[in-house]
Design brief:
Belongs to the triosephosphate isomerase family. Its main location: cytoplasm. By secondary structure, the chain is an alpha/beta fold. It has one domain: Aldolase class I (TIM Barrel). It is built from twelve helices and eight strands. The chain has an eight-stranded parallel beta barrel, surrounded by five helices. The longest helix has 19 residues. The mean pLDDT is 96. The structure holds 2-phosphoglycolic acid (PGA). 2-phosphoglycolic acid binds next to β8.
């Protein structure tokens, strides 16, 4: 049985004060992590505040990016070793906004995945197709390519613990969520790709999230699907009430 994982992705939103207020508002209301893993993906600036606020609670904290080297002359980058030292649990990598605006390649994302595992954290590896690819009927092939490149060289044990988020780019922040059947079908393509590369035992344990305009009102439809083990949520994770409502729908 795969445990559901709901992760908020705040993107570049909130101030330190707002991040702290959010954590204070939710931290005693997070469901048991025996039922669901509850994660907030925060800008790097507020990670320490959130890790401290979440200490002793069931709330887990994710960074939204990291570099692949632990230290050195990489101005402006964030060290995965420093993130782990801070107490960060997960790192979101390969989000379509990072691929598109910051030109991250599958190769970069693969190096980040390895560095994050090497530092004892878990990557949430994002994949997803553009509207053009979707309309051309090439989604499955595209996703298979991103997953194959992103996982290159990872071990069975690492992939078993990995979280993969399928986020069609055309459904992010647009209010146009992919129908739950499409989400299930493409999350199934992700799982089949993992099975082809790592075998059934690993593909049965990797957790796959759907992301793209998920909200409290529609999350149950996705979670009911066989291949969907959770959600990566942007807009609807920004308010404490809405984040808690997402978790409530799953627990
Ligand atoms: P959204 O964003 O929920 O606002 O569509 C999802 C994401 O980009 O992770």
């Amino acid at each position: 049985m795969r445990k559901p994982i709901i992760a908020g992705n705040w993107k570049m939103n909130k101030t330190a004060k707002e991040a702290k207020e959010f954590a204070e508002a939710v931290k005693t209301k997070i469901p048991s992590n025996e039922t669901v893993d509850s994660v907030i993906g925060s800008p790097a600036l507020f990670l320490e505040t959130l890790v401290n606020a979440a200490e002793g609670t069931e709330l887990k904290i994710a960074a939204q990016n990291s570099y692949w080297e632990n230290e050195g002359a990489f101005t402006g980058e964030t060290s995965p070793a420093a993130l782990a030292d801070l107490g960060v649990d997960y790192v979101i990598i390969g989000h379509s906004e990072r691929r598109e605006y910051f030109h991250e390649t599958d190769e970069d994302i693969n190096k980040k995945a390895k560095a994050i595992f090497a530092n004892g954290m878990i990557p949430i590896l994002c994949c997803g197709e553009s509207l053009e690819t979707y309309e051309a009927g090439k989604t499955a092939e595209w996703i298979e390519g991103q997953i194959t490149a992103g996982l290159d060289g990872l071990t069975d044990g690492q992939v078993s613990n990995l979280v993969i988020a399928y986020e069609p780019i055309w459904a992010i922040g647009t209010g146009k969520s992919a129908d739950a059947n499409i989400a299930d079908e493409i999350c199934g393509v992700v799982r089949k790709t993992v099975e082809k590369l790592y075998g059934k035992e690993v593909s049965d344990s990797v957790r796959i999230q759907y992301g793209g305009s998920v909200k409290p009102e529609n999350i149950a439809e996705y979670m009911a699907k066989e291949n969907v083990d959770g959600a990566l949520v942007g807009g609807a994770s920004l308010q404490a009430d809405s984040f808690l409502a997402l978790l409530d729908a799953v627990k």
